[in-house]
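ok so heres the complex, two chains, lmk if somethin looks off
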Amino acid sequence: MDWVALRLSLELAGLTVLLLLPIGVALGRFLAYREIRGKEILEALVALPLVLPPTVFGYYLLVAFGATSPLGRAWQALFDRPLVFSFEGLLLASLIFNLPFAVQPMQRAFEAIPTDLRAAAACCGMSSWRVLLWIELPLAWPGILTALVLSFAHTLGEFGVVLMVGGAIPGETETIAIAIYDRVQAFDDRAAARMATFLLLFSLATIAVTFFASRRVGRRLG
Amino acid sequence: MRGLEVELEQRAPIPLSARLACSPGELTALVGPSGSGKTTILRAIAGLYLPARGRVVIDGTVWLDTAARIAVPAHRRRVGMVFQSYALFPHMSALDNVAAAMGDRPRPERIARARELLRLVHLDGLEARKPAELSGGQQQRVAVARALAREPAVLLLDEPFSAVDRATRERLYREIAELRRILSMPVVLVTHDLEEAMLLADRLTVLHRGRTLQTGTPLEVTTRPASPEVARLVDLANLFEGRITGVEPSRALTRLDWRGRLLEVRGPAPAPVGAVVPWVVPDGFVILHRRDRPSRGERENPIPGRIEQMLALGQTARLTLRPDHAPELPIRFSVPLHVARRNGIEPGVTATVSLLAEGIHLMAPTSADNRSARGEGLQDGA
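and the predicted structre for the whole thing:
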């Protein structure tokens, strides 16, 4: 078992989920409630990682993060280290390729709240913040939980993008999915099987817990 | 000035041309067919809809004045609104639903007040229930308690009785009537149900395609409609046209030629002699003559004809009479079922009715009406 890779994967997934929570809520809510021109284009951009081959997506991220790109240069100037092949670069890539998994369930959850309910909240004197905290988040909670679990599990399993942007540096960017691939390449089937089984059981458990939790919440909300 | 004043104007997307006023303690019903803009007006008052042009003033405080670029957001307008769907917060108990509308007051204070309001709407004992565990009528009461929780400057009711069964509705009517005695703010009720509006409202405002057509007491609007359009909207079936043939100012009488039959009408003429005007006679001013012997008011505008249809609705018989002089213009009226039976009324028999002079209401001619007809009926599909 490659504990370093596992820990790295869990750190990456945990941070991704933590950062995607506010981003997903803000973006999902925006897409659910705002009628703006070009909304379809914005939605298509968010959904892009779902349809693009990970290598293609990873390639573009690599170019965008590279030392010659504006983002890469700015990062280098600010932190005195490159963005590509670093944990930070991997985290940024992870945030981007997880956007559809986080935003779409949250958007659907916010859309499912009846318009009248939000109107009633406003008529009860609640400001937008209070409507978000008292009404929207409690009602959209199952969708938000699903979004976070999907993002977490997807981060653990992502391979192509991570390899392209991270480059499989042990302790820095080598996640457990890549470690499994490495073990198979090195004909270490037992280690590969152990890690694969662990990942399988872990993913299954998280998703089962989510389904269980969202059903309970669903029942509570009637 | 105290009370609510509303003026809304816009062409698109929903055409609006509405004027509305409601004094403190008064209940104004906005009546009109679905799609006539009733709910939009209510939402504009609450701040949930921003019209192109408009003014909403409550007790001297301006909530909306598009000319002065004032539009107070919904959560800062002190409105109590009961939604058609009730829009109760499904994750909160009845008590918390009511307490949620009380803003930043300390929680114990909010809870105490919420309990009081739930008691007022007869829901004590059900405070801990979630909306899904309450019946439609109980949910409506929670919605009313929540709307009152803010101590609103105006109470807005959007078809609040449409989602409950008839028996519950009757009970809720009585409760609202009872509640109104302790409410001192203007109340605006939106409904498509004319009977409901007549029952609850002090004033009716009739609305069609976003335009307010007439405002008055329920009796005024339903017996003295301002136009044929209003007459149709308030279900006045006996809507016809006639030509003014003379006036007798001394007797406050106007003479009307209805397809060759002369009618006497109590009241001044709305147009000069010779003009063709629309007129209505409400159901209650059509008197059935006894068929065996003469009775009261026989000489008053008698119209002989043949009974075409009789529908028994509970203790009331709804009759349709085809007048001999104009069978294509049926007169519809009601009599108690026992009266119909005693007079041997059934489809096919001849009968005479009187159109009471004081009940005939003449309206000013409209250009469209003058074009379309010379003493012909105005009824749809008559």
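quick notes: The radius of gyration of chain A is 20 Å. thats all i got rn
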